[in-house]
Amino acid sequence: MGSALPLGDPAPLDGALPDDIAIDAQRDFGVYLHVPFCRVRCGYCDFNTYTATELRGARQDAYADEVLREIALSQDALAARGALRPAQTVFFGGGTPTLLPGGDLARMLGGIRDTFALAPDAEVTVEANPDTVTPELAEELAAAGVTRLSIGMQSAVPHVLAALDRTHDPANVATAVAAARRAGLDVSVDLIYGAPGESLADWETSVRTAIALAPDHVSAYALIIEEGTQLHRQIRRGEVPAPDDDLQADMYELVDDLLGDGGFDWYEVSNWATAPAHRSRHNLAYWRGADWWGYGPGAHSHVDGLRWWNVKHPAAYAQRLAAGQSPAAARERPDAAARRLEDVLLRSRISDGLAVSELEGEGRHAVASLIADGLIDGAAAVRGRVVLTRRGRLLADAVVRALTA
After folding, report:
1. Which residues are CB-neighbours of 356 under 8 A, at least 6 positions away?
2. Which end of the chain is more exposed for a tag (fewer CB within 10 A), N or C?
3. Which residues form the signal peptide (predicted)?
4. Which CATH number fits domain 9-287: 3.30.70.2750, 3.40.50.261, 3.20.20.70, 3.10.20.310?
5. In this structure, are residues 381 and 369 in contact, taking their beta carbons and an 8 Å threshold?
6. Average pLDDT for 184-194
């Protein structure tokens, strides 16, 4: 059911934004819609998700209406600040958004369209489990205005899927991709590497299978063992081995090579696309510090440096909205030092990098040694940008520490 929410200052029950919020009308605005439902809980998952037995009174069939109530509250809050802007991106994440009927997803998207409007070229993404995608659903989503399907492939190897507690049929990934293509949707596939028992050969099989599907975009994430998950407990008891850092590094280099040979370019440490137009604009907005409003249990939002997050459980979320109250649990406004650290952390991960001129003190002086160590691209630095080399991507945390010293 996800990790604990962070601490913060109390959020007002009416959802009002502080009077000193100064919203830049030119800053991109995105929307995240969290759908917290899953059929089963994967052993590695630390997201705020719930199976049917964990809902404790919350109703899946009422969820779209609850989100529409939160959208109405957000309209009031932003309109009071004179800050309604068209949404440049919309992202349905989870959980498994496609466990809801297509009509419910369409109604939520309609609520965003009616409240904020969608930019003419808006990117609208829906995450999907391969087993839930049918040709009918893909057509329904496309007709509603969805432009992109992000399919949770994770692996093409059955024993690796089993180690991750993924229950989908690997053959259904190709079926889902084909359905999305017929509906005119862009396609992204997500992969995870470093599962217990996964070999480099297993990983190569998964990557080559993903490339053969001809998606527009691939995300490949190293498995991280989150405390409190089933997989964490299994490792602690010695039932399965912990991920091997060296093997995961080899897997990263392999996926980067294979995707490069397959016509994909990296644009963020864990993301590759066949062309700039197929990069995830929604995720790029996060990395570049844009504004976004997150709807749903546990969803986080950011507007003009103010951050807030909703109550976690779907039942608590529903109760707040039924009472006409904002579901926001707490909020905070990080200070300048925290914002600077986050800015370097996020923007150094993307291929555009960040300007050397934005670094301060020891961080700027560290650039030369990071180039000498092969962690920062020297040619890019001459042009005034900090861009990670592949070795730098593998050691991104160490680079950030040096740049923010």
Report:
1. 364, 367, 381, 384, 385, 386
2. C
3. none
4. 3.20.20.70
5. no
6. 98
